[in-house]
Amino acid sequence: MFRSLANAWSNMFKPPHTVKYPFVGDVQVPSDYRGLILYDVEHCIFCDRCEKACPPKAIVFYQHDDGHKEYRYNPWLCIYCGECVRACPKADEALTHSSEKPNPASKAENVNDEWFVWQTVARESRERYAEKKKAEKAEKRAARKGEPAGPKGD
Amino acid sequence: MKKVINIPLGSQHISLLEPVRFQFKTHNEKIVEVGADVGFVHRGIERACVTQFEWKKLPYVVARVCGLCAITHSLSFTLAVEKMLEFESTRRIDYLRMLMVELDRIHSHMLCLSHTAENAGFEAMFMEVMAAREPVMDLQEAISGNRVQFDYIAIGGVHRDISPETAKEVVATLDALKPKIERLLEEFSKNWSLSLKYRGVGMLTYEEACIYNTLGPLARAAGLRTDVRLESSDLPYEEVGFEVVLEKGGDIHARNMVRLYEILNSIEMCKNIVQNLPEGEHLLKIKGKPKGEAIVRLEAPRGELMYLVRGSGKNFLDRVRIKTPTFSGIPAMVEIFKGSEYADAPAILASFDPCMSCTAK
Predict the structure, then answer these.
(1) Quick one: pLDDT at residue A133?
(2) What confidence score (pLDDT) does residue B121 get?
(3) Cα separation of B212 and B224, whole Å?
(4) Alpha-carbon distance A112 to A119, whole Å?
(5) How far apart are alpha carbons B181 and B251 in whole angstroms?
(6) Predicted pLDDT of residue B287
(7) Chain A residue closest in CA terms to B162
(8) H or E segment to which residue B112 belongs
(9) Low-confidence ranges of chain B (pLDDT < 50)
(10) Where do the domains of chain A lie, and which CATH numbers do they carry?
């Protein structure tokens, strides 16, 4: 009993194990902490490998009609596994695994709702682009076929 | 006059960590009949594994079955796929994988001990064990780069090598943890008020353990010598000083003792692994697509975890079957509850270390 009393008394002067989180700034993380995925459009060759490798589909490329692609990344869906960086042919240039912490999202913001809409839009954009390309190709082929066929018919 | 009263425990209850429902029928305070319902957190992971995700992404998916034994889940799946692809790992890969599994066991057992203490009404002990557990979590974060979802196991190895500084940190932290565990061992075996809640409560005899196919610490506390680390040769456990921990009591006290001694054994194993880490590659390239069938058993903190994987050389697998330890332990749990006091039910339940997100998947 005396020991427990002594323990209780000494515990009153010990600092707590926990930290007062929002008030102490950032909590220390290890230097090789798996944080946000950083992207550099200058180095990207738009091979889409990161998009295919991503398990939660947090990277999506939107296909513009003029042919260029736009990279979009959802840090709240990302599981920070680094699979995209490993798949990237220009890793550490186009895609980098930083140790930066992502901003927490509150429930009220519903950050993923917009993202799921965006995913569909991006998929449709690529389908549209693929169809457009297909049609163009068919047109070209028809034109190529038509040219030699024309004089012969005459 | 004897009257039967129905008392439900769960699906939400102050002593439960995860949703499970036990329907007790009691005579006065004594439990006579028990019904169990475990399907509250069903997420359809087995189905998603064969329809939504390609096989290369599955280690990340199955890791999300459970937060506590994430590493064991992804490792079991990876071992199964590697068996199908006839991949031979290096000893360094095996050692690094074992290191993470054993660290996982240490912190999972400490979580269980803290909750057993809390459900027996000893909250100060709960906080102490939780505080002592934190450095182990930090170690795992330093090794894998993340605190809970490690995503450390890759098909063909592990994603990161361990740096010499981290290896030193592992030894230092585990050296500091050992006296704390020894103190807990003394506290759990000598504290009089805890013994009232633990000794002779929630009994499971050796015969019952055999009949109900009990696994893990629950079986070892009843004297049943069953441990996958002993029986399987997927990982070289005998090289790093693994010893089976057996107790004879079969009550909550015996289960606590099994867990505490297993933590001590795991600490020794982790130190052995880090100090005798073989040289070699930590990640090898692997080619092909899984074809055929493979079964892998691993000792998760709660008992035997079994994976059955079947594939036919396509990007999507045909079947992924996960048999988790808690699910296999339910018949024994139901049996243990019978005949004990209702007031002891939370402490007994905590001593099973049930993992419901594993069970319902």
Answers:
(1) 85
(2) 79
(3) 12
(4) 10
(5) 20
(6) 83
(7) A32
(8) helix B91-119
(9) none
(10) 30-131 (3.30.70.3270)
Residues of B in contact with A81 (CB under 8 A): 60, 151
Largest CA distance in chain A: 116
Residue B26 is inside which H or E element, if any?
strand B21-27
Residue B261 confidence (pLDDT): 92
- Helices B252-275 & B91-119, crossing angle to 10 degrees? 150
Give the residue extent of every domain in chain B: 4-360
> Using beta carbons and an 8 Å cutoff, which residues of B are at the interface with A?
53, 56-57, 60-61, 127, 131, 134, 141-142, 145-146, 149, 151, 159-160
Confidence check: pLDDT of A150 > 60: no
Write the CB contacts of A116 (distance below 8 Å, at least 6 apart in sequence).
Answer: none
Q: Chain A closest CA to B139's CA: distance in Å?
A: 10
Question: Which residues of A lie closer than 8 Å to B, measured between beta carbons?
Answer: 17, 29-30, 32-34, 53, 55, 79-83
Verify whether the Cβ–Cβ distance A32 to B61 is below 8 Å: no
Option in B60, B131, B141 nearest A30 (CB): B141
With residue B273 as reference, give the H or E element that holds it.
helix B252-275
Residue of chain A nearest B133, judged by CA positions = A17
Neighbours of A85 (CB within 10 A): 19
Q: pLDDT digit string (tens) for A33-67?
A: 888 888 888 888 888 888 888 888 888 888 887 87
Testing the interface with B: which of A1, A11, A31, A32 to mutate, by most B Cβ within 10 A? Answer: A32
User: What is B4-360's CATH topology?
Assistant: Cytochrome-c3 Hydrogenase; chain B (1.10.645)
Query: According to the model, what pLDDT value does residue B267 have?
Result: 92
Q: How far is B342 from chain A (nearest CA, A)?
A: 30
Phi-psi region of B303 (alpha: psi -120 to 50; beta: other; left: phi over 0): left
Q: Is the pLDDT of residue A153 over 80?
A: no
